[in-house]
Write a structure and sequence with these properties.
With 346 residues, the chain is α+β, with helices and mostly antiparallel strands. The chain has ten helices and 13 strands.
């Protein structure tokens, strides 16, 4: 079957979960998965037997869908701190194969923020704040055929990938967090004051909400206070809530450009083929961009709790900044995620 015909079949079936899965399997990249497979094989081959027992699980293991970004004492996988420098370098080559340079830089930057927390929280941070307390897990056997998965996870990070028959078929949940969202006090050898790992995710959204007319705000702002966190944290699927907020159809051209820029920031954490696939799925779903909604809750200025959601039939973006940082600065602690509405971990 030709590529064009496959795409046509997917478009004709849009509007259902099955259709989204057909489109996804028909259009996925052909370069990222082989690179991930090779990198996974190389890393696993470098591990000692006792390390391999922690690093590798069956694809059917329920822990593959057990994700979270809180600073848990116990996690699946092999922690960076228990790897040799050479093994750790190979692990991060695996991460490099799975994400874009932007995604890789975000991940390493988020890990670095844990050192800031360790210093500020002192005794409270013992055994829980650690820039090397991040875990790699491979589920199944990396190969050109069959299914296998990858999890890279720790405080404020959860990146999850599924490969089937040599194709990267899912890259969600994709969760990044930042505490502090903006570094207030630079420390020696660490990011300087003003550094923002997730700057664009927040700044572009403030540009968008600031551009809304009073009439648009009535539809877009769904609550005077931000929720405590994003939805479905730790759950393998999002709640099936109906879309809320203002529709794409009711935005100006400039506002639509801002929505696209925000979407591109989240997609841009992944390799280009995956980012492009996410956009294709938005465009081929029932209603296309017209089915996308934007919702805001809380303050419309920095320094006070704020939240937004951008979602359509195939995806959901959520951003929440309500918690204080380690120094007590209000709303300086971000959680944000891209979720697949047709099913994470598929």
């Amino acid at each position: 079957m030709s590529r064009r015909r496959i795409i046509l079949v997917a478009v004709l079936l849009v509007g259902s979960t099955a259709a989204a899965l057909v489109a996804r399997s028909a259009l996925l990249d052909t370069t990222a998965a082989p690179a991930m497979t090779q990198a996974a094989e190389t890393w696993l081959a470098a591990l000692a037997p006792e390390q391999l027992a922690r690093a590798r699980r069956e694809f059917s293991d329920p822990r593959r869908r057990d994700w979270h970004f809180i600073p848990k004492f116990e996690r699946k996988g092999l922690v960076c701190r228990e790897m040799t420098p050479a093994q750790e370098a190979l692990a991060f080559e695996l991460l490099r194969a799975a994400v874009s340079q932007a995604g890789y830089d975000k991940a390493r930057g988020i890990m670095e923020l844990d050192e800031i927390l360790r210093i500020h929280e002192a005794e409270k941070a013992r055994n829980i704040r650690d820039p090397k307390r991040y875990f790699f897990t491979v589920f199944g056997t990396p190969a050109a055929t069959g299914a296998w998965g990858l999890s890279f996870e720790g405080h404020h990070l959860s990146l999850n990938f599924t490969v089937r028959d040599g194709r990267l078929v899912d890259s969600t949940p994709q969760m990044f967090g930042a505490n502090p969202a903006t570094v207030k006090e630079g420390l020696p050898g660490l990011p300087p004051a003003g550094h923002r790992i997730l700057r664009d995710e927040e700044a572009l959204a403030f540009d968008l909400v600031g551009s809304l007319t009073p009439e648009q705000r009535e539809r877009a702002i769904v609550a005077p206070e931000a929720p405590k966190d994003i939805r479905g944290v730790g759950e393998p699927a999002l709640p099936n809530d109906p879309p809320t907020g203002i529709s794409w159809r009711d935005l100006t051209d400039r506002q639509r450009e801002l929505v696209r820029e925000i979407v591109d920031v989240y997609c841009g954490a992944m390799v280009p083929e995956v980012a492009e696939e996410r956009i294709r799925l938005i465009e081929s779903a029932a209603g296309g961009w017209d089915a996308v909604h934007v919702a805001w809750a809380g303050a419309t200025e920095p320094g006070i709790g704020h939240y937004y959601r951008i979602e359509g039939p195939t995806f959901s973006i959520e951003f929440c900044n309500v918690q204080p940082d380690a120094e007590g600065n209000i709303a300086n602690h971000i959680h944000c995620a891209w979720r697949d509405r047709t099913g994470d971990f598929e």
